[in-house]
Amino acid sequence: MSDRIKARIQSLQEVLHEKALDAALIYDRENLIYFAGVDDLEGGVLCVPAEGEPELFCLAWDAKHMRETCGIDQVTAYPFPQENQSMKAAQWLKSLNIETPKVGFTRYFISLKDYQCLEAAFPDLVVGDIAIACYQIRSVKCAEEIELIRKASKILEIGMEAAVSFVKPGVMETEVLAEAEYAMRKAGSQGASFRMQVLRHDRQMLMHPYAGAYTIENNEPVLIHLGSSVNGYVAKMCRTVFLGEVPAETRNIYSILREAQKVAVDAVRPGAICGEIYDAVYQYIDSMGFGKLWMDHIGYGVGIRQSEFYPIIARDSKVPLEENMIIDLLLPTIYKPSIGGPRITDTILVTADGAQFLTNYSRQDIIKNF
CA 52, CA 132: separation in Å to the nearest integer? Predict the structure, then answer.
């Protein structure tokens, strides 16, 4: 086992001890990337005991590849459909000789079928949640992780330029995104970890929209929110393009958001409390008359996922930033009907000296006249 994977497994085992859990079963791609060092495993599970060595179960067809590429020493193959990953996980749990095992799961990423297999083997199975703990372990990046996210960020600049160059009245949101995604794929992106956004103005205040078959018109702002990935690690960036004559108040909102991002970035440093960063931004937004139209979250961790749930830059958060965390700032828009919608977001590294932008694309108004 590599030293890096060994340290990560030990950190997870410390969490298991703290939560009085006997083992963790890792099914999701995000944590398999992190704890097993593999980004192309489907139908597998990493079994980590509170004491002892982990074991990775995978499809028989993938076993040779997994043994050659993953960071886990013990890789066990199984034949499908005779067996599945959770049948193997149940057998592994039985080998621990614990009558009623207490098992940690990342709560977002276990299927009902997998859980049913485990429950059939252990009707009194005790379940614990290790999701946030895994995000916390993943939050401080090593040099290799930072370099991968830096590469993904550079690719984003190429994608953003392609989108900005192409966007114009009469094209669909999906057409703009296609140009951006093609450019990023050519530059080495392995895809985004979220449904990317190209949004005309009337769709920009939805919570989780994505590019659709909607025609962009002249004299409106167009939001472009892109993501890219390299070997499982991601970056994200959002800009707003103003086509033609856009209402002055909408342009002003983008200027306010740009200044709010600067307030946030200026406050970033190791030891800075996430809630205090939020407060500084909120005070500025409120001073501009938009406090009641502002969200309680303005940024998240960035890593294997585009929005990781540790740290979260949010109202009342007591979490301190640490050197080599990577975050995104600034997430929301100002939610004023018919006027709000523009956004600006960047991927940012926390360094000993403060914030370092990993995504570098003009943050000034981008105006295209037709």
Answer: 23
